[in-house]
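Q: Start with the shorter request: fold the first protein.
A: Done. Sequence, then structure:
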Amino acid sequence: MGSDLVPIPTVGRIFRATRRIRLSDRAEDGRLRLDSVARYLQDVAMDDVDETGWGAPDHLWVMRHIRIEVVTAPIEDDYVELATWCSGTASVAAGRRMSLVGDNGGRIELDSAWVHLGPDTRPARIKDFEQYAEAAGGRVVSTRLELPVPETEATRTTWPLRATDIDVLGHVNNAAYWQAIEQQLLDGGPNPRLPLRARMDHRHAVDLDDKVDLAEVVEAGRLALAFCVGGVARAVASIEMVDAFPAN
């Protein structure tokens, strides 16, 4: 099974950074965890938009969906080189790609779509986006949600929220959802040390006082998970094994 992610462009803005993989970034087996990867994406995205003037407080970005492709899990790597760029645009949204390459062979590719909000936290049309337009190459990003909610024979467990899960917007931070997924992976499904594709659709925000249930379906090589509040899915995730990704 291959990948259709947009490769690193040869023109336009590419923001690069280096991260040392710290103890708090790793799973028990030394692997770089998925929530750490999601946090790296947030961090470099914020550094990028702050540098171009597209960051807070005038511009806010809310993740709509994300795809993480673990080509080779970083296990023995100490450092990762990160490259991020705009992979497409829409009237009130933009796509962001990130390529993560470790110093000992680890490699993870990410693609995501973010809705643009103004300082009033309402969706705002994107104008004068020249810094990112060349790398986007005229591609149109979609904010359509595609993951189905796992319902049939789903196992339900409670996900207790913590104050540390909440960000400055008052909602559960994007990376915190992946902490819950890391916990569920311990109970079966895909092996996170092997190539896998993980996706998440963010439908509605989750707040600290929400009572969250996880609706989970585990199959051989696949995990489907919904974060539900009052029976309504606020976010949906899918993690599945992949035979191989392209060498490039």
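Q: Next, the second protein, separately.
A: Sequence, then structure:
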Amino acid sequence: MPRRLSKAFFLLGWGFLWIRAAAAQAPDPLIADPEHSHLELENQWVRVFEEHLGPHETMPMHQHPAPGAAIVFLTDRNNKLTYFDGSVKSFQNHAGEVIWAAPTTHKSENLTGAQFAALQIEPRPVANPKPFPKESTDAVIVDPAHYRVLLENEWIRAISLTVGPHEKLKFHKHPATGAVVVLLTDQNMRQYHTDGSSHENHGKAGTVRWAPPDESHQDENLSDKPFRLVRIELKQAQN
């Protein structure tokens, strides 16, 4: 190989390594821009924070770490992301949509005249992960009219619930792993248990909750309005 060409490849490779190393030094979103990011929940299994931008506001360069994150959009999105290497992409999503985002370093801009908000749900890897537990009375099996799988990978399974006014779900049991529950609408529900006991659950749209493994139950919407939530089941959150 000619010396000049060899030198060009060396410089190109060095430049690529420098970009990767520099990108890895970009700050965490909560450090880079605490005005537009807010921690909602954190434990040994997961970290959840909200990103929010006003009309045409921007977030500075920040890093989203491995293995990535499930993103639940609380509003519609029309944002422009500028990556550390200078490349630019625009993204559009709807409120209630759930996607999986790979690790990345970028800055972002809200391209609209409306508020933007989304939840970043980051699973934390464990040393010796177990297989995702199977459940014969899984909600998506016994009650597919109300529950459906939105996306699934090695880290998470995201399912949605939509229940009409005063509807009652079938008895079901979620897989024995921890989950993050996001209320997309106000909650006014009663939960029934196999021992005959019951209790009510109430919450505002946008509320984020940690849900440990639970027993078989049945839910009833006490409201005159439909109720919607997203449940992000963390496959490695097992004791």
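Q: Describe the second briefly.
A: The chain has three helices and 17 strands. The helical segments are 3-24, 29-32, 139-142.
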